[in-house]
Specification:
alpha+beta, 257 residues, 9 helices, six-stranded antiparallel beta sheet
Length: 257
C-alpha cells in the first residue's frame, strides 16, 4: 500500500460504525460529520494501526473539547488520557489544540515541543469551518470561520508540572504566530513605504545602490519574505539606538526597549 494514501471510505465507515449509540439524531449527525472531517486527511496506514473504536473515542472526545472556545485565543489541553475520563487510553501524552486557522501553526507547535525533547508520534490536523455564537459555543459544522484542530501524541510526560510547562510554551508560540499574522499586511506595507522613501532620503550610497536597495525591498514585500516583527529605532544624542514607542508590529509589538 502507498504509505501516503489517505483514509479509505471503508476505514472511515468502520470508525463511524464504532461511534456510540443512543445519541439524538442531531447529535449523531454532527458527530459523524465531525469524525469524517477529522480523519479524512489522515494516512490510511496510520488509521489501520489502531482499532476503529479507539479512533471513534478520540473523535468524540475532541468534539467535546471543540464545543466551546473563546474568540481570538487558542484552546489547548495537554494530558494523559484515561478510559473513564476520555473514552480512550494511550501510552503517549496527548496535545489538543483548537485555534483560528492561520499559517505557520504546525511548524510553530513542532518547534515548541522540541524545547522539551518530546518526540511527535502522531498528528492529525484537520481544518474545519465551525459556526459559533457570541459566547464561543459551537453551533454548526461546515459554515463559519475556518479553525485549525490539532491532535498530537508525544512522549509520555510523567507529571502535571511537565505538561503545564508544555502548554505554556505552546500558548506562547501560538500567541507569537497570531501577532505576526495579524500584523503581516501592515509590516509588508511598511517595507514598501520605506522603499518609496529612498527617493528622497539621504543615503550613504550612489544612485545605483539606492535603486538596488529599493528593488530588493520591493521584491521581498512581494510575498518573498516572511514578516515576523517590525520596530523603528532612532539614534540618541549619545549615539545609542532607542526604540520608538508604539512602532512595534508582529513579534515586536509592545516591546519598546
Amino acid at each position: 500500500m502507498n504509505a501516503h494514501a489517505l483514509a479509505s471510505a471503508d476505514t472511515l465507515d468502520a470508525v463511524i460504525a464504532a461511534l456510540p449509540a443512543g445519541l439524538s439524531t442531531a447529535e449523531r449527525d454532527l458527530l459523524e460529520r465531525f469524525t469524517r472531517s477529522f480523519f479524512e486527511r489522515l494516512p490510511q496506514d496510520e488509521l489501520e494501526a489502531r482499532e476503529p473504536a479507539d479512533w471513534a473515542a478520540i473523535a468524540q472526545s475532541f468534539l467535546g473539547f471543540t464545543r466551546q472556545r473563546a474568540a481570538g485565543a487558542p484552546k489547548i489541553a495537554v494530558f494523559n488520557p484515561t478510559l473513564a475520563a476520555d473514552g480512550f487510553e494511550s501510552s503517549h501524552t496527548i496535545v489538543r489544540i483548537v485555534n483560528d486557522d492561520m499559517p505557520f501553526l504546525v511548524d510553530s507547535v513542532r518547534m515548541a515541543l522540541t524545547q522539551f525533547g518530546a518526540t511527535l508520534h502522531q498528528i492529525a490536523h484537520p481544518v474545519m469551518a465551525l459556526a459559533r455564537d457570541a459566547a464561543g459555543q459551537l453551533q454548526g459544522l461546515g459554515e463559519g470561520a475556518a479553525e485549525s484542530l490539532m491532535y498530537l501524541e508525544i512522549d509520555r510526560q510523567a507529571d502535571a508540572e511537565a505538561m503545564a510547562a508544555i502548554e505554556t510554551a505552546l500558548r506562547a508560540a501560538l500567541g507569537d504566530v497570531r501577532e505576526a499574522v495579524v500584523d503581516w499586511e501592515e509590516m509588508r506595507d511598511k517595507m514598501r513605504a520605506i522603499a518609496d522613501e529612498f527617493d528622497t532620503r539621504r543615503m550613504p550610497v550612489d544612485s545605483a545602490g539606492r535603486l538596488e536597495a529599493q528593488a530588493f525591498l520591493r521584491w521581498a514585500a512581494d510575498n518573498h519574505f516572511t514578516f515576523l516583527g517590525y520596530r523603528e529605532y532612532e539614534v540618541t544624542a549619545d549615539r545609542q539606538l532607542a526604540a520608538v514607542n508604539g512602532s512595534g508590529l508582529g513579534l515586536m509589538r509592545g516591546k519598546d526597549h
